[in-house]
Amino acid sequence: MWTSEKRTLRRTLHKMAKVFKKTSGNGGVTLYLGKRDYVDHVDKVDQVDGVVKLDTKDFGNRKVFVQLACAFRYGSEDLDVMGLCFRKDIWIQHFQIYPESHKPTLSAMHNTLLKKAGDDGKPFSFEIPNNLPCSVCLQPGPDDRGKACGVDFEVKTYIANKKSDPDEKIKKKDTARLIIRKIQFAPSQIGAGPKADICKSFMMSDKPVHLEASLEKDLYFHGEPIPIKIKINNGSNKTVKKFKISVEQLTDIILYSADTYTKAVLCQEFEETVEANATYENTLTITPLLAENKEKRGLSLDGRLKDEDTNLASTTMLRQGLEKEVLGILVSYKIKINLMVDGGGLLGLTSSNVTLEVPLMLMHPKPQE
């Protein structure tokens, strides 16, 4: 019988031994990777170590290269058939591995993969710059087909005469490729939560409405309930008849120009009344989830591999000073609290809003080693 400790060790060893591989159509090159998720630690990114196994009998005078590319996909592959480019390379790096000219320092991952590939394996390593965006995809609409738009990373090995000759057409059967992800996890230290407040005066009322909102911490995990502490001091002669809390996702797409798209991922009304010259204090809890936004086209999601489940895109964390260097997709969130004040509008005949915004960070916790 296996003890629980032995079962845990067995699962761990099985996970450690997992290898991802892809072979070209002609069997000439096989790409090996030990993992497909590479963590951006803000100051540095995990190194991409891999191996390419070669079967050189049909190579002739051709060479073998391996490349890592970060690209923004902004259209369907169908466009490529019409001669339109549907990918914009943000960053790309090539190495020649046959005849051998790239000789990385061997890591433990290399040694594991070389055992799998055998004597014909050629190791390679890529250093991902920390000014590249994380893997993000934009949620397709119900009728959209093909790969989703967004930022992806691809490791590709191919047989060619030259490294990157635009006039050389590389055949699909001479290529093997694997999509990888650049991801971020929440930092180990979570700070104090943000706090904001606003005062708004109304016609024919001597005193304003004061609204204050705060969070317990500055970062929440995907799926974690978010309690918002709300304080209202209604010094006016108006009635706050209800309020609405929404969470907005802001997606900055930075390529040829900078565009920002805002989409609500949660909108919740609370039938809470605050009479004139009264106060209110309460904690209201919200939980933004992708499950409630499955039909929203263009929503930013964490990059996915094949058809596996994903979630709302994580907040992008950048090293200070990198904001203007990063291309691709940057994601942030904010909470909006709207008080609907009866008779606070034009000449006191219509309602008006008191609006307050609080920044929000959504991320995944770092897995245990």
Mean pLDDT: 85
Oligomer: single chain
- Characterize the biggest β-sheet: 7 strands, mixed
In the predicted model, the low-confidence regions spanning at least 5 consecutive residues are: 79-84
Would you mind describing this structure in some detail?
- It is built from 3 helices and 21 strands.
- With 369 residues, it is mostly beta strands.
- Strands 3, 5, 6, 8, 9, 10 and 18 form a 7-stranded mixed beta sheet that branches.
- The protein is elongated and about 90 Å long.
- The protein starts with a helix and ends in a 6-residue tail after the last strand.
Quick structural gist:
It contains three helices and 21 strands.
Characteristic key phrases:
single chain, 369 residues, mainly beta, 7-stranded mixed β-sheet, 4-stranded antiparallel β-sheet, 3 helices, 21 strands, 44% strand, elongated, Arrestin-like_C, Arrestin-C
